[in-house]
């Protein structure tokens, strides 16, 4: 089964958080925060502006993005967890 987002929605999969800090400290599961960097899995076609023109999406499948911390709707499909967010909840593309 696949998820096909509509309008300006983006399906993302969170990138696993680091298990050790740069200084070598190993983090427990309780010390890890929810990751904010996600990989784009699927992209909707874009939304229409008030004049009826299609506004294209600025992200593409495979991009790594930063999202608002509590943005989106969590969805579990085939044992994998995804988040569906609006394009406006994506803050930046990580290069």
Distance between the termini: 30 Å
Task: Give the oligomeric state.
Answer: single chain
Compute the number of helices: 0
C-alpha Rg, in Å?
Answer: 15 Å
User: On the 0-100 scale, what is the average pLDDT?
Assistant: 86
The major sheet is characterized as: 6 strands, antiparallel
Walk across the major sheet and give the strand order.
Answer: 6-7-1-2-5-8
Outline the structure in words:
The chain has 95 residues and is mainly β. It is 0% helix and 40% strand. It has no helices and 8 strands. It has strands at 9-14, 37-43, 47-48, 54-55, 64-67, 73-77, 80-86, 90-94. The strands form 2 sheets. Strands 6-7-1-2-5-8 form a 6-stranded antiparallel beta sheet, with no helix packed on it. Strand 3 (47-48) and strand 4 form a beta hairpin. The two termini are 30 Å apart. The model has no long low-confidence stretch (mean pLDDT 86).
What are the salient characteristics of this protein?
single chain, 95 residues, mainly beta, six-stranded antiparallel β-sheet, two-stranded antiparallel ribbon, 0% helix, globular
Structure summary:
The protein has 95 residues and is mainly beta.
Question: Strands, helices and their partners?
Answer:
Elements: E1 9-14, E2 37-43, E3 47-48, E4 54-55, E5 64-67, E6 73-77, E7 80-86, E8 90-94
Antiparallel strand pairs: 1-2, 1-7, 2-5, 3-4, 5-8, 6-7
